[in-house]
Amino acid sequence: MMPVLSLELILYTTALGLISIGLAGVVLSRHLFRMVLALVIAEAGANLMLVLAGYRWDAVAPILTTLGEHPPMVDPVPQAMVLTAIVIGVGIQALAVSILIRIRQRYGTLDRSQVAERMDAEIADSAGIPRDVSQESPLGERPLPSLPDSTVEIRGGHS
Amino acid sequence: MTEIELWIVMLLALMVLSAAVMVLLVKNHIAAVAAASVVSLGLALLFVLMRAPDVAMTEAAVGAGLSSLILALALRRLGLWRVDGVKTQVNLIKANGEGHQDA
Fold first, then answer.
1. Is A50 exposed, middle or buried (0-12, 13-18, 19+ CB in 10 A)?
2. Residue A152 pLDDT greater than 60, yes or no
3. Phi, then psi, of A25 in degrees rounded to 5
4. CATH number, domain at A53?
5. Does the pLDDT of residue B95 top 90, yes or no?
6. pLDDT tens digit string along B71-90?
7. Which of A23, A40, A70 would you mutate first to test chain B, the one with the most B CBs within 10 A?
8. What is the number of structural domains in chain A?
9. What 3 state SS string does A79-103 have?
10. Which of B80, B16, B33, B86 has its CA nearest to residue A47?
11. What average pLDDT does the segment A40-51 reach?
12. Subunit contact A10:B10, Cβ cutoff 8 A
């Protein structure tokens, strides 16, 4: 009984590890292509988790061979859903890659902060307003200028 | 049966997790795509051991085959297709030699 329990433990650890590695990659990676790869890994971990939900250690594959008495089977419903999820995942991946190609054509780079910077500048430029929020420089002068007197009531009076 | 299955699953899980870490850590983009393909392939073998042969077939064909194909073609289109060829090796050896001479 003990090795069976640790078998499922290994599989759950793998699934959770894949999901966490993928999410960490999506959050931490600086390159957009690496972000897509991390998304693929997280999706693979989610698929493993779903198949694991219908897994029984003493069951056989859900294929009906004889019409008589059959041994217990693995639950085939999560497997069918995962089958769909794999194909949808490839579709999502192709969409992300095409968006990456468009970003590369328009901004000439795939670095995350540079793309955000240029996108921000382009939006401000097309709207005809100055960019007051930047990713790198702080907002306004330091020390901050005092707020106008009309907002004293909102801020709770003079302190 | 369960004993040997346990060992196979343990090895496959180790392979999948280390390949997933490699995807995020390796510098070359082609190597990262290959590592993602290794993750899909190990996952397909795990699906076979988990009595899901249909999912394993789909994962091996679509996840490891088609997905790597799409990513590799996208690498060519994005201009990231760079193979670490003879040049970097020569530079590495040269840098090591110079460092040795300096030291």
1. middle
2. yes
3. -65, -40
4. 1.10.287.3510
5. no
6. 999 999 898 888 876 555 54
7. A40
8. 1
9. HHHHHHHHHHHHHHHHHHHHHHHHH
10. B16
11. 95
12. yes
Determine, yes or no, domain membership for A149: no
Least confident of A8-22, A69-83, A140-154, B14-28: A140-154
Residue A99 counted as domain residue: yes
Which range of residues forms the domain containing residue B69? 2-102
Tell me the per-residue pLDDT of A57-103, one tens digit each, with 9 for 90 and over.
Answer: 778 888 877 777 778 888 889 999 999 999 999 999 999 999 999 99
Which residues in chain A have their CB less than 8 angstroms from residue B3's CB?
A: 3
Full domain range(s) for residue A84: 2-59+75-125
**ipTM exceeding 0.90?**
no
- Which residues of chain A are within 8 Å of residue B81 when distances are taken between CB atoms? none
Partner residue opposite A41 with nearest CB, options B36, B50, B71: B36
Give the CA distances from residue A86 to residues A18, A19, A27, A75, B82, in Å, rounded to whole numbers and listed in that order.
15, 15, 22, 18, 29
How many folded domains does chain B comprise? 1
